Amino acid sequence: MMWTALILLAVYVALKSGQFAFLGKASGYRGEPVSLGRRLRKGEPALLIIAALITVPPVLAGTWYHQHKFEEVLRNSVKCYGLVQAYQNAPEIKRSNGGYAVYESVYGYRWAAFDASRQLGSDAKAVQQRLDEAALAMAAESRRAGAGVRHERLSVTQSCLHPPKEPPNA
User: Fold this and answer.
1) Which of 25, 49, 92, 121 has the greatest number of beta carbons closer than 10 A?
2) Crossing angle, helix 44-87 and helix 99-120, to 10 degrees?
3) Residue 76 has pLDDT above 80, yes or no
């Protein structure tokens, strides 16, 4: 909220400077103190409204977008952390990836979950609990799942170990 106010103030000052530079003499602002009534007649509220219309919507949209992306990163990190933890000892995973790639993925998803939760203002203990619960739930599911479900989970685990590369400027 504070950033929105600071950006609004900066845009307002820029518009006000432009008004003084280009319309100063015509609007009667040079050389004498200006009363509040005169400012209101000369369009001061319109200038503030224009500054707010320029500033507030992009800032609010950006805030919503970042909130949404951090929630998505947290969900994905918890899901992949649970899958990789549950299936890390599967022969298919060990054979195709090696132990270091599995360890690196577990550490990376754990770090991403904590970073996203910090950005969202969540408690670290709650995130650790979510990670542990996801790992336990996937481990329990892997023990009781049939061959079809196990094969599907292994393929999802492979995709978590090797996430697709994002194109630049994505």
Assistant:
1) 92
2) 150
3) yes
Alpha-carbon span 53 to 133, nearest angstrom = 45
Instruction: Give the containing element (helix H, strand E) for 135.
Output: helix 124-144
Please list, in sequence order, all residues whose beta carbon lies within 8 angstroms of the beta carbon of residue 131, skipping any fewer than 6 positions away. 78, 81, 82, 110, 113
**Residue appearing with tokens 């549950």:** 86
Q: Does residue 28 carry a pLDDT above 60?
A: no
User: From the centroid of its chain, how far is CA 26?
Assistant: 47
DSSP state at residue 42? T
What distance in Å separates the CA atoms of residue 67 and residue 6, rounded to the nearest whole number?
A: 20
The span from the CA of 49 to the CA of 110, in Å, is: 45
CB 117 within 8 A of CB 74: yes
